[in-house]
Amino acid sequence: METDVLKLERQLTDLKALMPELVGDEQALHAAMVRKEQIEEQLRSTVQKMDYQQELLTILMEECGEVIQAASKCIRFGCDNKNLKSLEKEMGDLYCMIDLLHEYDMVSLTELDDRAKVKREKLKLYSSLLDES
């Protein structure tokens, strides 16, 4: 994303430098001003998208940490109703962030499903969680 911002900023700088040369050519100056507005809008949109991505990823990391903490409490203090409810709450929060990452086109639910199938196959090989007895 940073390269997109830099590219747009460079285009804007180049266009602004060119504009004084266009004085006297109304049509070319108008076209340059329209293009300037388009580049500025693209730049705003790109920066805004980067802000969303950064916020989404930060909250995702925080939720992952809270899931880890809740799972750790289940291991340390037992999987009683209170600890399991806490784990379930934190996993729900994490699930919400996964949904938002999908809504913002940062992850594909199809790819996530495919990766989940791959993980299940690995668990069949390396874990007793999915024994087919």
Shape estimate: elongated
Average pLDDT, rounded to a whole number, is: 92
The tally of domains stands at: 1
Given as residue ranges, the uncertain stretches (5+ residues, pLDDT < 50) are: none
Strand content: under 5%
User: What's the count of strands?
Assistant: 0
Which structural class do you get from the secondary structure elements? mainly alpha
Order of helices and strands: HHHH
How far apart the termini lie comes to 49 Å
Largest sheet: none
The helix count comes to 4
Helix content: over 70%
Radius of gyration of CA atoms, rounded to a whole number: 25 Å
Chain-wise SSE layout:
Elements: H1 2-22, H2 26-77, H3 81-103, H4 109-126
Helix pairs in contact: 1-2, 2-3
Word description of this protein:
- The protein contains 4 helices and no strands.
- By secondary structure, the protein is mostly helical.
- The protein has one domain (about 1-125).
- The two termini are about 50 Å apart.
- The model has no long low-confidence stretch (mean pLDDT about 90).
